[in-house]
Amino acid sequence: MTDRVLEHIGKLLAADTIEETWSLHCAAMAEFGFDRLLYGFTRFRSHRDLGQPDDLMVLSNHTPAYLEAFIHGGLYQNAPMVRWAAENVGVCSWGWLKENQASFTDEERRIIALNIDHGIKAGYTISFPEVSRRNKGAIGLVAPIGTPQHEVEDIWARDGSAIRMLNEIFHLKATSLPYTSVSLLTARQREVLEWVGDGKTTQDIAAILGVSTATIEKHLRLAREALNVGTTAQAVLTATYKNQIFIAPRPGQAARTVTRE
Predict the structure, then answer these.
(1) Nearest to 32 by CA among 168, 127, 162
(2) CATH code for 3-174?
(3) What is this structure's pTM?
């Protein structure tokens, strides 16, 4: 293992925000010859699809115009490499696209054409192993515009093991961090949901925080609305999945304290 790879690993492990982790990973992959990345992760996968777009964790340094069409336009659901990643675990050269082009649907061909228009022609996809059938994470590594696929194969033959390891470490790190650009919940909403997760009733929480049960119910209602769920149990589950509660304090921050209002 090279000193460069060990340095990247150390930086990833030391990062404590998703923004820092992503920036470090983009820089690391650029050093290996992949200047554009598209990472996606969901904990709400079903047998039909990858879940609702709002539940996806998507990180990318592609252009806003491309992401608007591919992600916000929902094209990712039918993209050939996304389909491959949903059905497999491991790595896949984008040479697979050429080998299987005869079997693609018209929609898949339109998505490939969109990618080509945006200079997304050569690369590799990594689909990560998951501990839950509801989870799925993958990343597309894109070579610079003008790079032919055979040069990407040379990169992978030389550095593929290190690239795969760094991406798997990044995936594990990223999924341990809160992944919305801003917190979905206020500090008090997080605190109340944490007490619910600890098995406390509304009356218990009111007594602990020194407020009325009506105040606790208000915080729970607002938390359900913020998370777009119907029940408090779903709010606790969703907030946990999104790493919005039970967050360990960063160095220099105080641990959770009981406050009154």
Answers:
(1) 162
(2) 3.30.450.80
(3) 0.74
